[in-house]
Records
---
Amino acid sequence: MPSDAIVVGGGVAGLVAARRLALEGLGATVLERTGRLGGQVARQRVGGVDLDAAAESFATRGGAVAALLAELGLGQDIVYPRADPAWLHRADGTAVPLPATGLLGIPGDPLASDVVRAIGRAAAERASLDASLPASEGADASSLGELVRLRMGAAVVDGLVAPVVRGVHSSTPDDLAVERAHPRLREELVRRGSLAAAVLALRAASPAGSAVAGIRGGMFRLVDALEADCARLGVTFELDAAVDDVGLDRVTVAGEVRHGIVVRASGAADPVDDRMVTLVTLVLDAPSLDRAPRGTGILVSADAPGVRARALTHLTAKWDWIAEAFPGRHAVRLSYDGTPDNPIETATRDAGILLAAPLEHVVDANVHRWVRGSAAHASDVAAVGESVSGTGLASVVPHAERIARDISASSRIGRGPRSRARMEG
């Protein structure tokens, strides 16, 4: 007898959807094309310690991820990063702290001293003209780059927004839709009358404290907990599943047609080469890093000379639990678009430049590659994952929960998974 629901893709979105379907009373099978579950949330062992190989934090906005962790018994293990600022490595090769009151690099106070320091007085004064523009200016912009350029000028886009978007979304501001940048940014612009006011309102609406959080011991513990709870609820898993075709109410697996309500998780399709991301984690003997010379991490301008990395996270400066795991040593992680030549050698050189501290003794290193979800294709098949929800667990988790509930409600009244279960991000 076939399962009531078939989830194609065993990343976090697929696991969240399968768990919710099971909680709603539907049987579910998860088909994962690789040999492991979790997708972009994965574990690696470096320097004798289990660390996250990919996502190592989640945005606290909305509270959905924290609520899920509490349901899974991990609520007491939520931890927050140290308050040290991130830095910006600019196109001229110099570095400054990233302005404090921003959203994806968009300043909430364009004339603040840290904004002026980052982009210069003239560019900051141009950005401040945002307050005098009509709210309609840029309100219909299709991309974040177009919106910020119209309201605050090109220098803010190039000098602040582009490095942050590159580090967070592996994209450019002109390729990032406004709603994917933040689902309420356009709405708040119209309501508040300026982009800066919208940024401040969205920041004020976020939970008190840090905008991001993690799990003591690693975000990969979320995958372990989801897998265990899904198994408890009767969800079955098939790894290395060769899915040949996906339809509204059936999938073909190794030539066998199976019937059920189908949910497709982004990332379940074949990889797209230009979305490949490489992460290099280094464990270092480097006393010069004890003072955290660049705070918790660095975002890198695309034109910065001599640096291939798009971002660096100083893990032992950001997370107390990682610092405790590496007494007397440091762990850093660098991210790259595509795959650099000699990734460990390249990452070591880049880290020395970005941290302004030559690094000679690499104790251990690991290279991890993964593919970001590509844009979703129009389909009647219900879809979850970052290609339809937006980037990050704060978007992926509530979206997957909502879709699973919609499917359950539709199945109860005999309508099938159409209409409400179609995924508009």
---
Amino acid sequence: MDRADGTGPAGTTGRPGRPRVMVVGGGVGGLATAVALHARGVPVGVLERSAAESGAGSGLTLWPNGVRALEAIGLGPAVREHSLPGGTAVIRTPSGRYLSRLDPGGALGDRGAVVAVHRAELTGILRAALPAGTVRAGVTVTGVRRDGRGRPVVVTDAGEETADVVIGADGLRSTVRDSLLPASRGPRYAGYTAWRMIVEAPGNPVDPREAGETMGRGERFGVVPLRDGRVYAFATARALEGDRSPDGERAELLRRFGRWHAPVPRLLAAAREKAILRHDIHDLPPLPRLARGRVALLGDAAHAMTPNLGQGANQALEDAVVIAALLADRPDPEEALAAYDAERRPRTRRVVARSRRAGRVAQWHRPAAVGLRETLLRLTPPSLALRAMAPILDWTPPTPRPTGSGRAGGNE
């Protein structure tokens, strides 16, 4: 509920006259939004459904656009301290034959760095940048409505809270999205499932200077070295939606990938069943808008995408920086959110579509198609493929503008 002292929802601070913002969802996108708003003096609180942080998790690859977003909110040095710089990126066949090698550092030039970080460490850095009490855990949001003055009201299992602005960063199955756009299409299955795990493999079987992905027939296995010898490993396979292994996911992974080239079998042997996460891969069909009135969506709630370009978290970080800049620079929250929609919807729609196309090719399973893919990978200079990512990677954070001066967004 609103406080009598004018500071807004519990846990928020900021300068008088700024919109009071409630963020629903305490993942990467929601926390980054709160940090960006707090840094600009906008009162903000975060509602997170989970009562405690999970010890399980996955790795994230932060591309130059995502790193720039973190630098814009003052967290670049902290993230670099907890991450491993990207080394050579390779693509191989299940037998171990190399199809492609790329040094992102050299190919990216002055575009910036690529780093790998544990998701839990990134969310920990973001939480630590917020004042105590900003994030309220164990709160389930069941809907969003408007009060008689047109302000959004967040309905939770503990009651109702009114804010000037509500930002839904509550993921693929977003409750805020259902309230904002009840007629919109829900997530669509991409046709394949994914496993993710953090492995502490004895003997460090993975070269920390090399990350890569192995492509088979409708199956893939990826390896991303992290700090301290840990490894983020992931796998994908064509499957019916909802299928699960009756004898455990580790057993399923060993059946599918146990005979692939080193270090895949050794990583699977070291993996703990409880550390393996399995999720079917979905993305979100284009939404007609990312904001309406004083409610907006960001991250997976707005544009969930398949992981094939490694841009899910990076696009959420961009969202956070842009929406915070607009809310800080424009006195009318509805105008700010309309500008956010105009800035972010076309860009993220293109990234979602491009990632879905890349996933289709990566999951090819017919022998002729797999052979064609391998030939194309061998013949295409890796630097050319990376340059094709320039419209995504060249994004720059918005520059604060005087009130009423127009767009505050970055570029492509």
